[in-house]
Structure formats: C-alpha cells, structure tokens
Design a protein that fits this description.
The protein is mainly alpha-helical. The chain contains six helices and no strands.
C-alpha cells in the first residue's frame, strides 16, 4: 500500500505541475503567434513603403549597385531586421510569462542581446553598400587597374564596418585591429619598395651620368683629403 500511495503522490504533483504549466505554455504560444503576425505585417508595410514610396531598390538598381550587393534588397534587409526585432521582443515577453528556469533565463538573455546582434548585421550591410559605392566610383574613373583598386576598396569598407559591428556586438576586436594594422603597414612598405625598384629600373639610364659624376666627385674629394693628411704628416711616408 505504501508503494501505491507514493505513486498517487507523484501523480498528484505531476497533475498540479501540469495544471500550472499548461496555461503558461498556451499563453506563451498566443504571445508568439501575435508577435509573428505583427512582425510579418510590419515587414510587409515597411518593405512596401521603402520599395514603392521611397524607391530604395530602384535607386540601387539605377546606380548599378545591385550586383555588387549580391542581389540583396536594401528594403528587404531593413524591413527584415525590424521584423526580427519584433520577433525577439515577443519571444522575450513569452519567456517572461513562462517564469524562471534555465530555458526561460537563456531566452531572456538572448533577447536582451538581440538588439546588438541586429545592429551588427545592419552595420555590415552598410559597409557593403559603402564599399559598392566606392567600387562604382573607381570603375567609372580612368584609374589604372581600377578593377583591383575597386575590389580592394570594397573589401576594405566591409572589413572596417565588420570590425565596428563586432565591437558593437560586444566581441573583442583589439587583436584583430592590431593584425590589420600590421598587414596594412606590410602592404604599404611592399608597395613602396616595389615602386622604388620600378622607378629605379625605369630611370637608371637617365640617372647613370649623374650617379657617375657624383661618384667621381666623392672619390676626388676623398683623394684630396688623404693627400692633405699625408702632407701634414698624419700618414708615414
């Protein structure tokens, strides 16, 4: 009989837990559903406003930047980030409704962090847009090797904005910044040396008479100095 009573006690506790938990789960489900609907409506409204009234995507296509953005719609990115912010907001409300617990606490922590994550994604996209604009400007110029220069500027813009985005997301980037500075310095020195060698090779014939004349003057001056020292008794005869 004692074993049967223990089973009854366990079942009663499970039933009480079930009675308390089920309403919270249902409420959380309703909150998530409402958040999903609001997020989708916001996505459609803002996306439509940016596309049709502002004409953001048309402007990007007119500037010829859509290919450089890998076909990513700026309106879709902005609307999507706002939509996910609303999703995360309602997920946090649902987690608060569920009360304490490892899962609920983890969800709340992630929701609190989500604005930094979304801001970081937005900054990276801004870096891509800025890089595309820079590359477009270079490609429309007459700079030698403009394709390479434009790609370097685009990559550099994305890289700089990515570092800022990682910092915004709370990720330590000091080591990455130091490595970047070293790489840039090494590239700059290499380019300088290469340019110096190239200029030297190009101008060697033009500079040869001047170099010979300078060497002769140096040797003549050194010879006169030694002769003067011998005459003054500084060197044994």
């Amino acid at each position: 009989m004692q074993g049967l009573q223990d089973i009854i006690v366990v079942l009663r506790e499970l039933w009480l837990t079930f009675r308390v938990t089920i309403p919270k789960i249902l409420a959380a489900g309703i909150i998530l559903l409402v958040g999903y609907v609001i997020g989708r409506l916001t996505d459609m409204l803002i996306g439509g406003f940016l596309k049709k009234f502002i004409g953001l995507d048309k402007w990007v296509k007119k500037k010829g930047l859509m290919e450089e953005l890998y076909g990513i719609s700026p309106s879709g990115v902005i609307a999507g980030l706002i939509k996910w912010y609303i999703y995360f907001l309602f997920i946090g409300i649902a987690a608060e409704n569920m009360g304490s617990g490892i899962l609920a606490d983890s969800v709340r922590s992630f929701v609190q962090y989500s604005p930094k994550l979304l801001a970081g994604i937005f900054l990276i996209f801004i870096g891509l847009v800025v890089g595309a604009l820079l590359k477009k400007q270079v490609m429309s110029s007459t700079v030698t090797g403009k394709g390479i220069v434009g790609s370097i500027l685009k990559f550099g813009s994305v890289f700089v904005f990515t570092i800022v985005a990682l910092s915004t997301m709370g990720i330590e980037v000091s080591l990455l910044v130091e490595i970047t500075v070293i790489i840039v310095a090494a590239i700059t020195i290499s380019i300088g040396v290469a340019l110096g060698i190239a200029v030297g090779l190009v101008l060697k014939d033009e500079l040869r008479p001047y170099i010979k004349s300078a060497l002769k003057e140096m040797l003549k001056g050194e010879s006169e100095r030694k002769n003067g020292e011998v005459e003054n008794g500084l060197y044994p005869s």
